[in-house]
Amino acid sequence: MPSEAKTAPGHPAGAAAPARGRPEIEVIDVPPVFLVGERAGRLRLARLLDGQDGISCAPETALLADLAAATRRNWPALGHYGYPEQYWLKRVADFFGALQLEYAAGRGLTRWAATAAPDDLALVDRLFPRCKVVRIVASPARAGRRVAPSPEAEFHSWLSNRYYLLPVADLMSRADQTLRAVLDFADPLVGAPRRS
Asked: Global pTM?
């Protein structure tokens, strides 16, 4: 007589019981958060944010930029398959997002944030058009002043309510308040994020 698989209470007949010792984690499909700025500021914020409100910040790597660069570098070969470049970049985003979600779930967390260098901001926006960006800047004067059109001002208008400008001085001097403001901004249920 064949053995029957055990079903977990509350699971439909035929559904396997979850592995013992490993609780089921529901991963929420919300836009990721990217921490963009100079390395010291983004790493400090990542350390503070990791584990808060279900957010996982994996160790920093250049994996996303490297994968996108490999797609561009190999475009002549990939083009033979008949798909446009955006198709391949979407696959890069899907792979990176899945990797981050699996890392988060493995830690018992439900969503993810990643760090990125300032030069990668356009790439981040292209690959993750729904993401939220915390842009860490050196000083409040640089953050708020608009003397001439700059890449910073251009990205701010592109990203609108998905963009949070954070002076690094606030991160250093008021870490708890700043973390709460960033968490409020990252909350998918908050319609209009508060700005510091």
From this structure: 0.74
**Rounded CA separation 31/82 (Å):** 29
Q: Enumerate residues 6+ apart whose C-beta is below 8 A from 129.
A: none
What's the structural domain count of the chain?
Answer: 1
In-domain check, residue 158: yes
Q: Residue 187: how many CB atoms within 10 A of its CB?
A: 13
- 103 domain-assigned: yes
Q: pLDDT digit string (tens) for 41-76? A: 999 999 999 999 999 999 999 999 999 999 999 999
Q: How many residues does the chain have?
A: 196
Do 68 and 75 form a contact (C-beta atoms < 8 A)? no
Give which of 124, 121, 90, 97 is closest to 111, Cα–Cα.
97
Q: Which helix (H) or strand (E) holds 119?
A: none
Of 151, 117, 96, whose CA–CA distance to 35 is shortest? 117
